[in-house]
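Pilot study result, target chain (94 residues):
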Amino acid sequence: MKLDIQHIAKLANLHIDKEEEKRFEEQLSETLDYVEKLNEIDTENVEPTSQVTGLQNIAREDIAMESLTQEQALSNTKSQHNGFFQVKAILENQ
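Predicted structure:
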């Protein structure tokens, strides 16, 4: 099967050169060949499943409880402003 790597790259918004195109075509072809082998497995008597552990709803129940006050939350900060943590800017103007 001939793969249109440039079309796939365009869909993924990737700019690839000819060398990368050749390498990606080989890699994708190998991956698709491997996945195709799954069609050889007899799954006639196997029920579809999304997971195999049998666990359901393993998260704890969401219970509302008291939290820190604003004063407690800010008690160990080095810098605050108007009741909020104050941090150095991490973004630059472009």
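One observation from the pilot: Strands lie at 80-81, 84-85. A full batch analysis is planned for the follow-on phase.
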